Please model this.
Amino acid sequence: MIIIGEKISIIAKKVREAMMKRDPKPIQELAEAQWKAGAHFIDVNIGPAEERGEDLMKWMVESIQEKVSLPLCLDTTNPVALEAGLKAHNNQWGRPLINSTSNEPERYVMLELAAKYNAQVIGLTLGKGGLPADAEERCAIAAEIMARAGECGVPLEDIFLDPLILQVCTMQDHAMHALRAIKMFQELNDPPMKTVVGLSNISNGVPKQMRSLIDRTYLTLLMYEGLTAVIMNPLDKELMDVLKTTKVFLGKTLYAHSYLEM
Amino acid sequence: MAYVIPKETYTGRVLELEFGKALRTAKVGGENTLPFLSFEGELPNKPVIAYEIQDTLPDDWPDTVKNLYADVSNNPVKWAKYCQDELKAQAIAIRLVSTHPDRENRSPEDAAKTVKEVLSAIDVPLIILGSNHIEKDAPVLVAAAQAASGYNCIIGKAQEGNYKTITAAAMAHNHKLIAMSELDVNLSKQLNILITQMGFDKTRLITDPMCSALGYGLEYTYSVIERIRIAALLQNDTTMQSPILGDVGMYVWKVKETLAPEVDVPLWGSLEDRGIAWEALTATAMLIAGANLLIMRHPKAVETVGKVIEELI
Model:
């Protein structure tokens, strides 16, 4: 399971303030903590970044990779900022991941950037017509993204399809739709397409004390369906323990009494 | 369309381990593919075979193998030199069986003295084994590790019941260490974790999943080794990437097929040939499963397995 650490996000007050002040320390600390906890990518979410997005993304990438030998998941809707991040990215630690392209015309450019910079890219199955209704609609959008990737010269192995996780508290049916989509995405190609989710979306809007439980339980189901990667909080020890335990059940980790410590 | 050989890609690699001193070291491991699949990856080091000797007369060995060493087995130094000089051993494994409470129950000091004498007489790498008595092996191997300080030996076997003391001794005197568990892949992993959690460097560790002879559970050993290698190479499990030991001789030379005289089982053919074949076949199966280091007794079996290695790599 590829873990993409989600903690560096403009939504978090501490991170937002550090971004504004260009103070690298809090950001570097969060990156290092996630690395030590087992993250394989660090997500860098700077939001729409309409003003000076270029500068900000470049500074973020350089500040983080100065301390952490991991590839980054560059998360912004601003393609100019994204390109600045790709240019600054140190590929010695692995290829960057673009978060994300979709079926919305303004996000097509992300595939071109993936081709230009040999990056991997998340394909969010969200189209022009609003939220996808079910797993089948998600697959139809996925197929369009895959076709477009072919035109841009992005290999299908470099795409992580994201079924778009929606909050269970108001859109309960979508929990199952997304799970089915994870299974169906894999059948769209041989070798199977890679998949990814933004896990915590599932628990948006539920009382705070229940969020971790909901995230954990849903992660197990997603893993059972063959999920490749997950955007989540690796500092949540209970969540990490569930991930490790599910890997044992799936035969991906050899059991030993101390498996949680590894 | 031309046939394309399907190839597996591996994310892990077996750790490389070197033991012995100066110019006469032996190196095992380092491969990033399943055994002998050289078209899929690298196999930088061939498996190594060590000759087994003991610190006392091998009274429990059958005549077919005991008699070969009749002139030297009353003295471990002579025995070791014979293996090195006459049999051209790549490595020697001395088993300190005399320290077992049911045998001569010799002291750790005696064992240390023997180890020192053997080490000063040979220059091939040495593996130092206890008598496989959980309580007694701890003080014996502590004394032996100290006596062998600076020689970069392999000592063992550390087991669930005594690993702390033996690991500490290997750490203090810079030796390599065998971690042994009894035919259980999960306990094998657990022991490796516990040993490395003591601060012992995983690159100095050897895994012994416990050998068994052909016809006496070899398929269990085979499956355990296979699962360990799959974890190490395909799942990049960093706790399972140590080289693997096959302690073949002691399991082979006590089974019916290597003991029963021709008069009792005429259809089974020559007793000596049968024993050699049994040891060679068991050893070869261990290699094909993934063993990197073997301990064996009969020179003709060693020679046969040596040829197999040459032909497969």
Notes: The mean pLDDT of chain A is 96.
